[in-house]
Amino acid sequence: MTAPAASAPPPAQPGAAPRPRRGGRGRRNAELGLLVLAMVLVAAYGAAVQASMLDTITGTFWVPAAVLFLTFFALHLVVRFLAPHADPALLPAVALLNGLGVGFLRRLDLGGQEAARRVDYPVFAGVGGRQLAWTLISVVLAAALLVVVRDHRMVSRYAYTLGLVGIVLVITPAVLPSSISEVNHAKLWIRFGSFFSIQPGEFAKLALLSFFAYYLVRKREVLSLASKRFLGIDFPRGRDLGPVVAVWALSLLVLVFEKDLGTSLLYFGMFVVTLYIATERVSWLIIGLLLFSGGAFLAYLLGHSIGGPFLNFGQRVDTWLDPFADPYDKGWQLTQSLLGLGTGGLFGTGPGAGQPNLVEEVKNDFIFAGMGEEVGLFGLSALLVIYLLIVARGLRAGLAVRDSFGKLLAGGLSFTLGLQVFVIVGGVSGLIPLTGQTTPFLSAGGSSLMANWLLVAMLLRISDAAGRPAGEGAAGPVRSSGTGSAPMRLHGAPTEVINR
Amino acid sequence: MPAFVVAVARLGFLVLLWIFVFTVVGVIRRDLFAGARSSRLVAAPRGVGASGGAASRPAKVKRGKAAHQLVVTAGQLAGTRITLGENQITIGRAEDSTLVITDDYASARHARLVPRNGQWMIEDLGSTNGTYLDRAKVTGPTPVPLGVPIRIGRTALELRP
After folding, report:
1. A7 touching chain B per CB within 8 A
2. Half-sphere exposure of A476 toward its Cβ, with a 13 Å CA cutoff?
3. Which residues of A touch B39 (CB under 8 A)?
């Protein structure tokens, strides 16, 4: 060993310590700046809505934006202290979507009032006010997740429990009587009385993903290595297909008994993509696509021949194929949505100047069509790019984080978010058969908002672990746990075992 | 409200929306590059930091040939693969090593791999039984070419692209 090498570590220490911290603070300041910009945008949206709907700008147009800013600022502080290296773009981007959702719902409330009464409409009333309250609760939940889960690997300890919870959550609405669980022909809900209802599937997503990630970290070698080559693609052995077939069956059950293609596509896509991330085998994607499209096609055929539980799905496909065949009944929702998007054109009618109240379910499923009418293609693409950035940052966190569980979890979470946006926006714009998914962060509804904020909190936590310089903070617990045999020691360490 | 104000509000909102999008992209971009540089400086030993910023460009040009993985080819951990990042890799029996090897002939802190201007250098940390690059004993920081085995006791490691 040479002299300079021996003396290298000690002087590097004092220089190394403050530098990452400064990097973390820079990120947090950037986050705060973006957050302020996002809330300015929300306030501007509120002002624009008032300008065209009330013909005047009242002194309270900034109040929802200010309340939202205080809420998100609190979350920003939590991130600043508990996840200082987290991604700076995630929180402001999500905050903007959430804020615009609140603003648009308030605009719908105003649209539901007579023109003369709109000026006096209270700030915290109606669906918009409720959404504001849900945002508050969701942000508190997200902060709680950041406080409780200090290291994302902690989640893997409860993987089997979470998997069980997830399956129970998925199945509950299917077995409950329709009077409790059915809303708009989709059995996805648990209703407590007429006011309060939750959509357990939204939370099941998170629980199931944690379980998938853990399961695949354990099984990835077998799944990626024991394979037969056929047509230049590695296909797995039959018996290794067991779990994927099980999830496929589960998702088909969801399709049949809960009458919801979107949710089943979401669960199945989630699993196949985590499988793909774990094994890097394209064959999984091909198998997944074939299985799903085969299953969906079969359900469509069955819907036409025997009806029963498949009838709803068959009708939806018919509506998708030709929405204008029955524009006043079955195709009503979709045609209104398409007409709304068409009216918006390139630049939209302007916030508050459209007629989104004509679109059915514009608060939930069709919020994208309602907004599209007013902000136009130009605005919608900006919203889609924001979703894309959120997903990309999530995937980036997955690439950068050092442990396999974190990689799978981050990849799965961000892909699920992207898939959900695809399913609902594709449905609303007529690209795929319409299914009742919520638009993440925009749609009215507590379950969706809470679940998606938890998802973002988890991504923030993982991106914090990814951005943290090596050898600082949370790296400690993993390495101290390395007392078992060689593979045990590697588990969770920054390595990937392939045993080739 | 005059139509002019409504038009300004309508287009102004869209413009602001896209400004937000591009600001986010800008932050992400800055974050990517800042992150890469700072972690390089942290990982690099003393004296390298000063040239790190300037040298990061040529390193990127020959990325195709750069090492991206460290693979254990022989010994108990054969088959283990570490994706190389910007940080140094420490090898030894100590629990806090990046690669913990349970080799009877390895020392607690045996050797380390340090990236320097895109080239990985092996450095012996005063081990009892020595580190060998192919057949030659490593005495000072030595550049490691791709595919040449580093031998530590019964364990052999290789850099792979």
Report:
1. yes
2. 4
3. 20, 469-470
Determine, yes or no, domain membership for A1. no
For residue A387, the cross-strand partners are none
d(CA A429, CA A420): 14
pLDDT for residue B14 is more than 60: yes
Handedness of CA A321, A327, A332, A336 (dihedral sign): positive
Tell whether A125 lies on the interface with B, counting CB pairs under 8 A.
no
Write the pLDDT tens digit of every residue in A300-315: 888 788 766 677 778 8
Chain A contact for B79, CB < 8 A? yes
Are B123 and A389 an interchain contact pair (Cβ–Cβ within 8 Å)? Answer: no
Asked if B140's CB is within 8 angstroms of A497's CB, the reply is no
Instruction: Please say whether the beta carbons of A102 and A127 come within 8 A.
Output: no
Chain A (41-80) residues lying within 8 Å, Cβ to Cβ, of chain B? 41, 44-45, 47-48, 51-52, 55-57
Contacts of A126 (CB under 8 A, 6+ apart): A105, A106, A109, A112
8 Å CB contact of B28 and A375: no
Q: Do A37 and B31 touch (CB under 8 A)?
A: no
Q: Are A460 and A86 in contact (CB under 8 A)?
A: yes
Q: How buried is B46 (Cβ within 10 angstroms: 0-12 exposed, 13-18 middle, 19+ buried)?
A: middle
Residue among A140, A17, A32 nearest A89 (CA): A32
> Is A249 within the bounds of a domain?
yes
Cβ-defined contact of A382 to B125 (cutoff 8 Å): no
Q: How far apart are the CA of B83 and the nearest CA of chain A, in angstroms?
A: 7
Which residue blocks in A226-281 are alpha helix, DSSP H?
242-257, 261-279
Q: For residue A14, tell me if it sits in a domain.
A: no
**Residue A7 within any structural domain of the chain:** no
pLDDT digits (tens, 9 = 90+) for A359-374: 877 888 889 888 989 8
**Model's pTM, two decimal places?**
0.74
Structurally, how many domains does chain A consist of? 1
Q: Whose CA is closest to B47, among A470, A4, A18? A: A4
Lowest mean pLDDT among A113-127, A235-249, A312-326, A360-374: A235-249
Rounded to two decimals, the ipTM of the complex is: 0.80
- Looking at residue A323, what DSSP letter applies? G
Which residues of B fall within a CB distance of 8 Å from A40? 16
Nearest CA in chain B to A348: B10
Segment (H or E) for A43: helix A18-53
Task: Give the long-range contacts of residues A291-296, CB within 8 A, separation 24 or more.
Answer: A291/A248, A292/A248, A292/A251, A292/A265, A292/A268, A295/A248, A295/A251, A295/A252, A295/A255, A296/A255, A296/A261
Q: Are strands A196-198 and B155-160 parallel, antiparallel or unpaired?
A: unpaired
The answer to whether A48 contacts B9, with C-beta atoms less than 8 Å apart, is yes
Answer whether A382 sits within 8 Å of B14, measured CB to CB: yes
Interface probe for B, chosen from A36, A380, A385 (most Cβ of B below 10 Å), is A385
- Residue A201: both structure tokens together: 């599937």
Note down the domain range covering A459. Answer: 24-472+479-495
CB distance B10–A353 less than 8 Å? yes
**Tokens matching residue A215:** 């399961």
